Each structure stands twice: as C-alpha cells, then as structure tokens.
Amino acid sequence: MIGIRRESGLMKKDGGGGVQSLRRSRIAAAIFVGILLGCVFAFFYPDGFFVSSPPIHHSVANSDSEVITSSCESSERINMLKSEFVAASEKNAELKRQIRELTEKLQLAEQGKDNAQKEVLVLGEQKKAGPFGTVKGLRTNPTVVPDESVNPRLAKILEKVAINRELIVTLANSNVKEMLEMWFTNIKRVGLPNYLVYALDEEIASLCESRNVPVYQRDPDEVKRETDKNFESVARTEGNHAVSGLKFRILREFLQLGYSVLLSDVDIIYLQNPFEHLYRDSDVESMTDGHNNMTAYGYNDVFDEPSMGWARYAHTMRIWVYNSGFFYIRPTIPSIELLDRVAGRLARENAWDQAVFNEELFFPSHPCYEGLHASRRTMDYYLFMNSKVLFKTVRKDAKLSQLKPVIVHVNYHPDKLPRMEAVVDYYVNGKKDALDPFPDGSQ
Ligand SMILES: *[C@@H]1O[C@H](CO)[C@@H](O)[C@H](O)[C@H]1NC(C)=O
Fold first, then answer.
1. Measured between alpha carbons, how far is 68 from 54 in angstroms, rounded to an integer?
2. CATH architecture assigned to 148-293+324-427
C-alpha cells in the first residue's frame, strides 16, 4: 500500500516538473524503485498482497522463517502436517477405543470388587474363626431399601395397614368368595389389623369395601407391561391354581416397597396372632406339608439297592415340601430372587407353583445350574397346622387336641368350606365333636 501510494505521489509530482532530462532520469529512477519494490514485495508476499494466508501458514511462518522461502515448500509442509494430523487423529481414535475398553474392564472389575465389598459389609469385617462350637453363619440377610416408585398407590395403603412393616396378604377372585369371608372374619376375631386382600376382580373389591376389609385392587391403567395383560385375563377367569402362580409376581411389589409379607391362601383359619410366633431370622419362613418331625424338618431316607452288596444302602436327604400357600417372606435380595425365579419358571413351564417354589428354594448349585442362596425356616407344624396333621393325628390325641394352633390350613382336603367351619366350631365355639364327622382323607 505504502509503495503504491508513494509511486502515485511521484507520478503527480512528476506531472508538474520542468527540465526534460531530469524528468526522464527521475522517471527511470521511479521505474527502478517501482521494480525494486515489486521484487521486494514479491519476495516477502509470494501469495499476493491482498490474499489472506491460511491460519496454519501464519502460525508456521511465525515460528519458522524457512517455511516462507517458497510457496511450494510451505504447501508441502502443510500437506505433511495435514497427514500428520490425520495420522494423529487416527491414533487418537484408537487410543480412545482402548481407553473405553479399559474403562469397561475396570468397571467390571470394580463391580466384582463391589460385590466382594458388599459381601464384606454384610458379613462384617473379615475375622478369624472363633473357638469350637462358637461360630455361626449368616442367615438373616439385610432388607432392601424401600422403593415407593414401584407402586405409589399400594405404598400409601401399606403405610396405613402394615404394623412394623409387616402384614398378611391374600389374593382372591370371586371363585373363592365364601372362603375369603371366613378368612377375614376369623382374622378380625383374632384382632389383627395388618392384613390386606389383593382383589383380582371388582366383586371381591366391593365385598371387602362393604365389610371394611383392607383391600387393594389393581387399577387397569396401571397395567402397562405386556405380561400383565396375561395376568389380568388369568386373574379374572381362572380358579385357585392359576391364581397361585400370579402371587409371586404380585408379592415382588410388596417386598420392593420394603414390607415383610405373610402370604396366605384363603383356605386358612386364624386362631391366634401369627406375628407373635415368627422367628424373622430367615428369608423364607414357611409352613410345611409334613406331618411329623421327620417329614416336616428333614431326615435321612435310606435307599436300599441289594445288588450293590456291601454298599446296598444309599443315604438320601428328604423333607416334605414347604407349603407355598402360607409363608412369611422378608424383603431381601434372595427373597426377591426367589420370587423372580419362581414367576419366571411358571411363565415358561406348565408346572405346579408349589413344586417350583420348593425346587428353587432347595436344589443346590450344580453344573449348568446356579442354586438360590436363600435362608429358610420350617414353621412348627403344630402351630401352623395343615389339615392332615389335624385330622389324622391331633384330633385323636388327648394331649395334642388340647393345644390351640395359630392357624389351620385346609390344604389336604377338597371339602374346604365345611372343614373350615368345623375348625372354627372346634377351636373357637368349643364344640368338641365338630371334627368327628370328617374322614382322615377325602373319600
Ligand atoms: C419333635 O421336634 C420337637 C421340636 O424340635 C421336639 O421338641 C420334640 O421332642 C420332637 N418329637 C419327637 C417325637 O421327636
């Protein structure tokens, strides 16, 4: 700019000059200066005077004077830098991928460590084993943190109904209406406030409301999951057995909300407060289908195979199944895992829910199978009595018939209603002959 202005200034000045030769030499000088300046500018600004250089060129030119010696060299340099940049960003992507992989591995390792740490937290500090006879393993697992978001409406009801975060729960549809009436009438007589009917249809819901019985009915709008469509149709149309498969899914919500549930079928007569007879030390505390100490609490059943000679006796472990119609379940991770496993299998297999419940509770881990690690306790079969114990043994025994059970479950007999009435007559109304008309088993 400066050069051009000066040039034009010289031209103007020259335009008003006097002597010719002087003017000529001045013109020659001006041309020479002009050419010189042109060379100088061409040298320093090879890309042109008004062309703005790319930023990368600028920064390089500032640091490295050699680069500006030729435009060819600088563009070569740029290309080199560009390829270096591409290579670097490729390397960068590779590094990022490696970092991501490492982070994932680290997270997995952390989770493993986390599990181990949680175990340590649960078990307490690592300790040396104490002296002989003083060590005791863990059976009472910690409860889960309550999650009200699972079912806020149910959470509200449970807040009112439960006592010490525990309650009796039953599922009922109109097929079991009469039994349900006997069920809650006897609970009321015992004076228990902490029980809830999970109504599977409108009729049961309105029956409970009219009788002032705590009730929860699932709002059809709440049914969002695909599997629940299934659930609704089964709940409305099926009888006792199909309903029993649903309870494992329903129970999960209670446990997630942080409540211990004493799950109860409707064919049960309450005679005392069951909560005064629980140990609460295990994930599952259940009544048994057993009828004596051996069958209820487990025994060594020797299997005889004479052809084996010296080793003809094979020892087996046996226990009569837990009754999945009456059990107390604490809100722990193993408990919820049990419910999930049973519900999952019942959804996939056409199986009896009580058999599945017991298999999941008792079968140990083995190749291709990871067993459940839940703690369990068998209830006293004289206090939490099944109808076989009552009709085969107790009613005929002078001493045993004097004891009052906590509950009687009419699980072994199909004529449930009349036997339930007889149990009430016998234990509540003092009719000593109320049980006499009934045979030991069904005929
Ligand atoms: C059955 O078990 C109970 C409780 O463990 C015990 O008190 C009772 O003596 C046992 N009865 C027999 C016949 O072994």
1. 13
2. Alpha-Beta Complex (3.90)
